[in-house]
Automatic annotation (TrEMBL):
Protein name as annotated: NmrA-like domain-containing protein
Signal sequence bounds: none
InterPro entries named among the record's database cross-references: NmrA-like, NmrA/Isoflavone_reductase-like, PCBER-like
PANTHER family: CIPA-LIKE, PUTATIVE (AFU_ORTHOLOGUE AFUA_1G12460)-RELATED, NMRA-LIKE FAMILY PROTEIN
Keyword Protease in record: no
Keyword 4Fe-4S: no
NmrA-like domain segment(s): 6-226
Gene Ontology terms, MF aspect: oxidoreductase activity
Keyword annotations of the record: NADP, Oxidoreductase
Length: 305
């Protein structure tokens, strides 16, 4: 008999991704959602429960997870110890399904997975797989590759919409699967609704697959051809410098960002998705016109700000 997932606990609900997952879970109308948080918060959707927890306390986490069918981990901590602590607590509390804090590139790509920003995710996924092998829990991982809207808002993908500036990540011709945050949230909700179809496996989704040059061209079409500046960035050189800083203990967001940008722009570290779970998980594949409209929306946000 299929296990119905009704009660869902969400860790990391206040983050960029977690907030979209929360919205999708509530919108689905199928779940009793409990937010796990470090401190009292009032800005939560109607009908959503909140439990203040000490993430360092195993007993506190177990108590908070009692009666939950699923735990969605949307925290974004590089150190896997928190993810593993949440998993252990979920097992002790009798939780049926874990959605680990994966939400990145293909976990089966060994080259990409070997890079420091992804090593914590690799350890966490390996850990939950071992728990599942012993029958203690089930899991579903979501692989969405790059975040499309977040990447455009933050100019992380090398396209600065506000200043009309493009930094081509050498060579700029690598196909990058990209997914909107909203679509990731939708995928999580549907993965729990269709729990038997997503049990103990990685689900692959993407809103679009474009090279960086494609994305730059769509940005020009959306915002007008005039006024753009561009330059080429040697991502391998930036990667080598970032790795040297990391090994010297000089870790900051620039270092992590340069390593990730290298991974999404270098063949072999990222691959085009030949098959996705979009249909299963209700993720829409965006047309070029829809991508351009997203670009215009984000550009308007920046102009207003």
């Amino acid at each position: 008999m299929a296990h119905e997932i009704k009660n869902v606990a969400l860790a990391g609900a206040s983050g960029s991704l977690g907030s979209h997952i929360l919205q999708a879970l509530v919108k689905a109308g199928r779940f009793n959602v409990t937010i796990l948080t470090r401190k009292v918060t009032e800005n939560v959707p109607s009908g959503t429960a909140v439990k203040v927890v000490d993430y360092e306390s195993a007993s506190d986490l177990v108590s908070a997870l009692k009666g939950q069918d699923a735990l969605v981990d949307a925290t974004s901590v590089p150190d896997p110890s928190l993810a593993i602590r949440l998993m252990d607590a979920a097992v002790s509390a009798g939780v049926y399904r874990i959605v680990p804090s994966e939400f990145s590139s293909d976990p089966t790509n060994s080259k990409g997975r070997s890079l420091p920003p992804f090593q914590g995710k690799a350890k966490a996924l390996e850990y939950v797989q071992k728990l599942a092998d012993t029958g203690k829990i089930t899991w579903t991982a979501i692989s969405n590759h790059a975040f499309l809207d977040w990447g455009l808002r933050m100019s992380f993908l090398g396209v600065d919409l506000q200043n009309k500036n493009i930094e081509y990540l050498k060579p700029g011709t690598t196909v990058i699967p990209m997914t909107t945050l909203e679509s990731v949230g939708t995928a999580v909700a549907n993965a729990l609704i269709k729990g038997e179809n997503t049990k103990n496996r990685i689900c692959y989704i993407c809103s679009t697959q474009k090279t960086q040059k494609d994305l730059a061209e769509l940005s020009k079409q959306a915002l007008g051809e005039e006024g753009w500046k561009s330059m080429n960035v040697d991502t391998e050189d930036a990667f080598n410098k970032a790795m040297a800083k990391l090994q010297a203990g000089q870790v900051d967001m620039q270092v992590i960002g340069d390593i990730i940008r290298f991974s999404i722009s270098t063949p072999g570290y990222i691959d085009r998705l030949e098959k996705t779970d979009n249909d299963l998980l209700g993720v829409k594949t965006m047309s070029d016109e829809e991508v351009k409209e997203l670009i215009r929306e984000i550009a308007r946000e920046k102009t207003i700000a």
